[in-house]
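Propose amino acids for all 95 sites.
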């Protein structure tokens, strides 16, 4: 691998040159292992994408619930103020 502009790039010519020196059976073995590794990584990526989707859905549910609870708290505070005013006696200090 070569470092260029803070990015890692593959030296494909060097890789091809190396592969040309290997026997066919070793190339097949490398290909099979690389494919298996890629399939495993694809499965992991799918699971992580599913988990992200699930977490986003949970987050949306929490946001909705928080909004509903904030609204309910506001309503209860208004009702509390109304009740407090209703139970005050006339001429009582409003502090």
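Proposal:
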């Amino acid at each position: 691998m070569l470092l260029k502009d803070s990015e890692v790039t593959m030296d494909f010519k060097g890789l091809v040159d190396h592969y040309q020196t290997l026997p066919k059976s070793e190339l097949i073995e490398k290909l099979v292992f690389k494919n298996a590794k890629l399939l495993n990584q694809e499965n992991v990526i799918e699971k992580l994408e599913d988990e992200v989707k699930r977490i986003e859905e949970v987050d949306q549910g929490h946001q909705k619930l928080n909004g509903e609870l904030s609204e309910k708290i506001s309503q209860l505070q208004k009702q509390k103020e109304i009740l407090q005013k209703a139970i005050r006696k006339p001429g009582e200090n409003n502090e």
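The radius of gyration is 33 Å. The mean pLDDT is 88.
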